[in-house]
Write a structure and sequence with these properties.
alpha+beta, single chain, 6-stranded antiparallel β-barrel, 37% strand, Elongation Factor Tu (Ef-tu), domain 3
């Protein structure tokens, strides 16, 4: 299953996803199991922070690489609004609960990065960040 299957029920042609890495470095690990999953999932990647300014206030996001977006979509999770997946996110020493959301424009899931996280980690606008995502039930 790919990320879009979970969000809208269709599989995008590979040509729409572009290069496999989209400039990201990524890897998936499967640490010790945790209740609720047969196997705990921990996704790590680096990606640039980008701004979506469709609203008055600036929203900043990081795009989950396509191969990791596909892995997230395959998890046996209950359906949530907008095709979102609840996660615990970590950037540097800051850890918070949030959700990742599917984005056709970005070709995978996107992670919103709060102003408080950007300030605590001193992330410059457009800076590249290391991210750890752990899906939760």
């Amino acid at each position: 299953m790919r990320w879009r299957d979970r969000a809208i029920g269709t599989i995008p042609p590979r040509s729409l996803l572009g290069p496999a890495t989209h400039g990201h470095e990524s890897r998936a690990e499967r640490p010790a199991p945790r209740p609720g999953y047969r196997c705990r999932v921990r996704l790590e990647f680096t990606a640039p922070l980008w701004q979506w300014s469709a609203r008055r206030e600036a929203w900043w996001f990081v795009t989950v690489p396509p191969e990791l977006s596909d892995e997230l979509a395959e998890l046996p999770l209950p359906p949530r609004g907008f095709g979102s997946i609840k996660v615990t996110a970590t950037i540097g020493g800051t850890r918070w609960s949030t959700s990742v959301f599917p984005s056709d424009e970005q070709g995978g899931y996107v992670l919103p990065v709060k102003r408080a996280v950007r300030a605590a980690e001193q992330i410059p606008d457009g800076g590249t960040v290391g991210v750890v995502l752990e899906p939760v039930r």
